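This follows on from our talk about sequence and fold. Can you supply me with one protein entry, sequence and fold together? Could you add the entry underneath, on a fresh line?
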Amino acid sequence: MAIVAAEMSEVGLLLRDWRRRRRLSQLDLALEAGVSTRHLSFVETGRARPSPEMVVHLAEQLEVPLRDRNRLLLAAGYAPTYRERALDEPDMGPVREALDRVLAAHEPYPAVVVDRGWNLVASNASVGLLLAGVAPHLLEPPANVLRISLHPEGVAPRIVNLGEWRAHLLERLQRQVALTGDPELAALHDELSAYPGPAAPHASGDEIAVPLRVRTDARELAFVSTVATFGTAVDITLAELSIESFFPADAATAEALR
C-alpha cells in the first residue's frame, strides 16, 4: 500500500510541476481537460490515482513531450506508451527518406536535422559553407550545432553579427529549457553563455527576422531560417527531430549560392 501511495504522489507532483511550468492554475487545466477541479486536485495531492488514459489526456493538454509522458505513466505505475526507435531501424525507413528528400530539395541552401539536444542528425552538402574552418573536435559525433555555432573555435569568429545571433540562439535555448525543464539543455545553456562574445546590439526594429551573417573567403552571406517538425509523431525519436532550413536573406546571397 505504501508503494502505491508513493507512486500516486510522484505522478501528482510531476503533473503539478508541468502545470506550473505552463503557468496554468488548477482551474485553467481542469477547464481545458474537461475534468473537475476537485478531481485534478486529488490527482496532484495523491488522493486519487489517475487512469493511464487520464495521465495521457492531462499530458496532452499540458503539451508534455512524449519522452516525459512515459515518465508520467511510470510514475503512476503504468507501462510506457511511446516507443523510441533508432533512426536506422527498418520501421524508420520512411522517415529517413523524408529527411533525405527535404535536405536534398533545399539545395543549394544549407539545412540540418537536429535532435532534442541540438545534436546533428543529418545535413545537406551546402552546410559545408558554414562549417569551413571549424575545429575538427567540434565536428566529432555527437556534434552539437549550437556549440559549433558559438564556440570560439567554431563558426563564431566568422559570424559578422555574433552578438545578435548569439543572443538569438541563447534565447531560443532558454525558452526550450523553460518549457521542458531538461537539465541537459540547462547545462548546455550555461556552457554556451560562458563562451566569449559581444553583447547583443539594441534592436532597431528595422529587420523582420534575425539574420545569420557569415563571412566566407569570397563574400559575406546572410541567411534567415525556418524550423519544421513532424506534427503527427507518436514515436519519441521522430517527435524530437527538427529540420532547420536556411534561406538567403538578400539577393546577393541568393545569387552567390546559385
